[in-house]
Amino acid sequence: MLRSVWKSHSRPIILSSMPHTVFTDMFHLPLPVLEKLLRPIVVYLALVILLRVFGKRELAQLNPFDLVVLLSLSNTVQNAIIGDDNSVSGGVIGAFSLLAINYLVVRVLFRSTRLTRLLEGRSSVLIRNGQIDRKALERESLTREELLSVVHRQGFDDLHQVSRCELEPNGTFYVEAYEPSLADKRHSELLTQLDTMTREIAALRAKAAG
């Protein structure tokens, strides 16, 4: 809104109330503070439960569809978190609520191993002693091709080279080989060569001292 003030023998002076309006819009809360605190908490807990129910493959992002689901989740729950509120105050309160509930959940899980297993679940053994567990693959909705892709990313050519493969609760894969990998072999060879050189140098020094 603009207001004009007239002075004698002078032009009108325009007084603007725009800064007041801007700050009012930025920090005005259209929703109660308690609702702003509860909305992120409810959505947070709902997402934790849903990810627990639908398995670990979404977190592993094995194909583009899993990635699309995770990217779409943020837009899907955005309105449920903020409601009809675009204010700075609402955003700060919502962020505080999310960080606070996450901090509390992490602290509780840190103190309780049983609750951690209940919420996060257990690792799924997909390959045991070189044999694929078909039931575990079906339970995690994984195909043999997806498992083979995981094995390839770990540096193995075939599933028969894998002694054990586990899908962790956080979506990562643990792969154990039957034989040491090429990098491990090279590392072992270097250590052997260094040990041999150390002994030879020690022998030469002893000979020179004698």
Topology of this protein?
Blueprint (H helix, E strand, L loop, with lengths): L1 E4 L7 E4 L1 H10 L5 H21 L3 H4 L3 H19 L5 H24 L1 H8 L3 E5 L2 E2 L1 H6 L4 H10 L8 E6 L5 E5 L4 H28 L1
Antiparallel strand pairs: 1-2, 3-4, 3-5, 5-6
Helix pairs in contact: 2-4, 2-5, 5-6
Tell me about this structure.
This protein is an alpha+beta fold and 210 residues long. It folds into three domains: 87 residues, no CATH class; 56 residues, CRO Repressor (2-Layer Sandwich); 30 residues. The protein is 62% helix and 12% strand. It is built from nine helices and six strands. The strands form two sheets. It has a four-stranded antiparallel β-sheet with strand order 4-3-5-6. Strands 1-2 form a two-stranded antiparallel sheet. The longest helix has 28 residues.
Task: Pick out its properties.
210 residues; CRO Repressor; four-stranded antiparallel β-sheet; elongated; disordered N terminus
- What is the number of independent domains? 3
Q: Over all CA atoms, what is the radius of gyration?
A: 31 Å
Order of helices and strands: EEHHHHHHEEHHEEH
- Portion of residues within helices: 55-70%
Q: What share of the residues does DSSP label as strand, in percent? A: 5-15%
Structure annotation, total helices: 9
- End-to-end C-alpha gap: 100 Å
Look at the helices and sheets and give the structural class. alpha+beta
Counting DSSP E segments of at least 2 residues, the number of strands comes to: 6
Strand order of the largest sheet: 4-3-5-6
Biggest pleated sheet: 4 strands, antiparallel
C-alpha geometry = elongated
Average the pLDDT over all residues and give the rounded result.
Answer: 79
Low-confidence stretches: 1-10
